[in-house]
Amino acid sequence: MTAPLITIGITCYNAADTVTRAIDSARAQDWPRLEILVVDDGSTDGSAAVVERAAAGDDRVRLIRHDGNRGPGAARQTLLDEARGDYLAFFDDDDESAASRVRTQQARLVSYAEATGETRAACYASGERVYPNGYRLHIDAIGSRPPVPAGDPVIDYLLFNRRRRGLFYGAGTPACALMARIDTMRAAGGFDPAFRRVEDVDFAVRLAAHGGHFVGCPERLYTQYATRSPDKSPRRNYDAEMQLIDKHRAYLERRRRYGFARTWFTVRYHHFNHDRARMLGALLRAWLAHPVLVTRQLATTVPARWRHERRMSRPEQ
Prior knowledge:
This protein is of the alpha/beta class and 317 residues long. 45% of the residues lie in helices and 19% in strands. It contains 12 helices and 9 strands. α5 (152-160) packs antiparallel against α7, α8 packs antiparallel against α10 (258-272) and α10 (258-272) packs antiparallel against α11 (276-289). The longest helix is centred in the C-terminal third of the chain and has 22 residues, at 291-312. It is globular, with a radius of gyration of 19 Å. The N and C termini lie far apart (49 Å).
């Protein structure tokens, strides 16, 4: 029986120093039928030329160029539009994936469908994030422990961080760890080109609303190298989160969480922007408006976040 074609999609923007690593790990996959698509999203650092050199002599690799920088949502949608495979797996331009990644994720999707009859599923890989000081963070995939989350419990987690008891949400729904059937992605509406950040969260919200299941692989199948760039700034992330909340306002209002979601993301923004006075002011306003919800959020998120940030800030090891 012929193995299905799997498309590996790589979005590339000003990644001349790292994209070769991502392409090499895509080419090294131990799956017999691959196509590797790279979208250069208007890079200005010569990334496209680096991609062409890295792909020389390998007809599985195809470069697609955007005429300007359109953002991750548009780049991921281009990959989905151009993909010819049965499955699509995303590799980020500064990550490195294990050679067994697509094989492991495809097997997880197939086994889940055989066991449950459910094909509307996305599979997320577990991985590891490496920080400049040598600190390594284990990233556990959503759904990598039973039972598998689906539907509203996933939407509630993504939009206002409600965690249902007994479900494992792991590291959420990052596109860099995602693999799914292409028809599943398209049925959920693909990626919204209007998003320049959190486009993967928006996709996951819509997939969950479409009845999608979120399965995970416990194996650590990718390494993410933490980097800083203007497109990852706290302000850009905050603007995109507000865009996300407003896009899904009708759902949040039905759940009576629209105001809370906006307030909590504002607290997070001031924290990540290192503006303690504004953060404390926003936190006080949030607590006065939603005392039970805010107390619960603080109890469930602050201790782990504090430990993580201490390790991030240690001197280089």
